[in-house]
């Protein structure tokens, strides 16, 4: 089965959040499940730098489809020529393992900008974002139509709003008489929708008839996210709970009606943990390895981190960590409001994040006021993120909403037990340390329901109380570390979605 994955990010080449972790892990897992997978990415500088087009050609038969690298020539909907480079991304596994074929849109005027792929240094979305990401969907549709004569996908799998026009271009574009590819669209976060004013629409090559309620129109503008949700053959999102939640007004961000009407086409598939990157037994960022069987190294990870951050060297102080975008979504106002209570219990907080400036400032001030018990690193630091999970006793993820959440999964894997709100993928992945779950061996963290300080603090109290009971803590920690959220399982579910579309391959619209 030939699958084209389309996303704006790809770990390790470009990452601003969980989308990259998923886009960088799923193709390999799908390939292990038997699919012939390639990826399409925009030519941001770090992606162009990371996709190989020169050097020794990998020998693998599976890879050998045409010349090693090629520049395919297409055109944009607004008539400019565009090059699509075909290269490869090295396998993060064994050095001789087969690489992944990657198509990269080489359009420097659109993508060659420093910093964030989505916004300028003042955090303003780029003016031409509609063009920049329409081109991603457009090229996906061109590949589905045979742009690369050597390989034509049967399924185009588009991720998040950036790739949301791919299903629309595929559904509304001309047919070349070949069987048409099917489309799958995955929502990673419904809060970010790619909404633009009408003025951007006419140049993007979609028929005017698509600009209506049963199409891309959205409250007087139009939406990439809606296009994906409306035109894709099948929809998925990143946890079963989020699949239910986004069909309700409370979490539908204005698209719950459409999502509910397509409820039969929507599947929630929980993300996995990429163990080539996230495994404390083999994590080169940690000062020493550890795992559920041999957890001793975790104490050294904690002591090293406390020293690195200037926190008091106190093994007996529970170390709470946050690795997060600093936004209201992530429940950080609760963490701030609850910080006095946390400190009063003798706990420490180590935060790593960037985002809304008021949160950056507030946490920085708290760290300045109590540097031995609160640390705030403002910025993005992959290595420190790993070391924090290795060091932490508790990972805080008290989100307002959370499509899947990866940090609680990393917290589980690294024995930094998650405190989470019972929402989205958090509810699907953490088992509260209730008396019953403690007794039956399923407890893996601390879950609260209402988004309220009182409820959050009650969960914190329970976490600290369990921490002070060393045998119980070690038992729950070992249980958490043994929980597996593997990509193989998720890939099997995605394969079932793809297969359901390829039943009889749809005849092309004549
Ligand atoms: P999001 O909503 O931001 O995608 P997820 O929990 O799904 O949230 O994924 C966040 C990813 O980004 C995780 O891999 C996490 O470790 C990483 N991350 C978030 N903030 C930072 C940071 N400041 N530095 C390093 N990694 C970060």
Report what the structure shows.
The structure is a single chain. With 510 residues, this protein is of the alpha/beta class. Helices cover 35% and strands 18% of the residues. The chain has a 9-stranded mixed beta sheet with strand order 3-4-5-2-1-6-7-11-12, with helices on both faces. Strands 15-14-13-16-17-18 form a 6-stranded parallel beta sheet, sandwiched between helices. β3 and β4 form a beta hairpin. The structure holds adenosine-5'-diphosphate. Adenosine-5'-diphosphate binds next to α1, β13, β14 and α13.
Distance between the termini: 24 Å
> Describe the biggest sheet?
9 strands, mixed
Quaternary form? single chain
Number of helices: 19
Rg is: 23 Å
Give the averaged pLDDT, no decimals: 94
* Estimated share of beta-strand residues: 15-25%
Instruction: Give the structural class.
Output: alpha/beta
Spatial order of strands in the largest sheet: 3-4-5-2-1-6-7-11-12
Gross morphology: globular
Total strands: the figure is 18
Q: Key features?
A:
510 residues; single chain; alpha/beta; globular; 6-stranded parallel beta sheet; binds adenosine-5'-diphosphate
């Amino acid at each position: 089965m030939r699958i084209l994955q389309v996303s704006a990010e790809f770990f390790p080449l470009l990452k601003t959040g969980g989308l990259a972790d998923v886009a960088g892990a799923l193709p390999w897992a799908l390939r292990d499940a038997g699919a012939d997978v390639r990826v399409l990415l925009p030519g941001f500088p770090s992606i162009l730098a990371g996709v190989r087009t020169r050097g020794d050609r990998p020998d693998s038969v599976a890879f050998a489809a045409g010349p090693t690298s090629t520049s395919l020539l297409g055109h944009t909907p607004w008539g400019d020529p565009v090059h699509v480079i075909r290269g490869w991304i090295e396998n993060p596994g064994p050095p001789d393992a087969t690489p992944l074929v990657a198509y990269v849109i080489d359009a420097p005027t659109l993508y060659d900008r420093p910093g964030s792929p989505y916004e300028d240094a003042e955090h303003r979305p780029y003016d031409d974002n509609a063009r920049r990401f329409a081109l991603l969907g457009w090229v996906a549709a061109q590949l589905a139509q045979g742009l690369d004569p050597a390989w034509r996908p049967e399924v185009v799998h588009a991720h998040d709003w950036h790739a949301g026009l791919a299903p629309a271009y595929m559904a509304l574009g001309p047919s070349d008489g070949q069987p048409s590819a099917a489309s799958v669209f995955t929502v990673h976060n419904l809060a970010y929708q790619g909404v633009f004013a009408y003025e951007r629409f006419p140049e993007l090559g979609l028929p005017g008839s698509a600009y209506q309620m049963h199409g891309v129109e959205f409250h007087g503008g139009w939406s990439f996210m809606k296009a994906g949700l409306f035109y894709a053959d099948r929809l998925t999102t990143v946890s079963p709970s989020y699949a239910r939640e986004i069909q309700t007004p409370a979490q539908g961000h204005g698209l719950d009606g459409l999502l509910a009407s397509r409820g039969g086409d929507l599947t929630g598939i929980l993300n996995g943990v990429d163990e080539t990157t996230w495994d404390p037994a083999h994590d080169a960022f940690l000062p020493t390895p550890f795992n559920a069987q041999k957890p001793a190294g975790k104490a050294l990870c904690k002591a090293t981190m406390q020293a690195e951050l200037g926190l008091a060297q106190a093994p007996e102080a529970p170390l709470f960590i946050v690795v997060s975008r600093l936004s209201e979504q992530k429940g950080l106002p609760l963490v701030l409001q609850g910080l006095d209570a946390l400190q009063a219990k003798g706990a420490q907080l180590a935060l790593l994040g960037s985002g809304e400036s008021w949160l950056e400032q507030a946490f920085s001030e708290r760290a300045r006021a109590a540097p031995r018990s609160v640390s705030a690193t403002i910025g993005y630091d992959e290595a420190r993120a790993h070391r924090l999970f290795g060091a932490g006793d508790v990972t805080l993820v008290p989100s307002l909403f959370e499509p899947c959440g990866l940090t609680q999964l990393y917290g589980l894997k690294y024995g930094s037990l998650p405190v989470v709100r019972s929402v989205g993928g958090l509810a699907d992945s953490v088992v509260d340390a209730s008396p019953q779950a403690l007794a039956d061996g399923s407890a893996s963290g601390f879950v609260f329901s209402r988004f309220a300080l009182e409820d959050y603090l009650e969960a914190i109290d329970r976490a600290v109380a369990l921490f002070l009971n060393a045998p119980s803590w070690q038992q729950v920690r070992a249980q958490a570390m043994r929980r597996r959220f593997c990509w193989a399982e998720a890939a099997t579910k995605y394969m079932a979605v793809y297969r359901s579309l390829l039943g009889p391959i749809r005849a092309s619209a004549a």
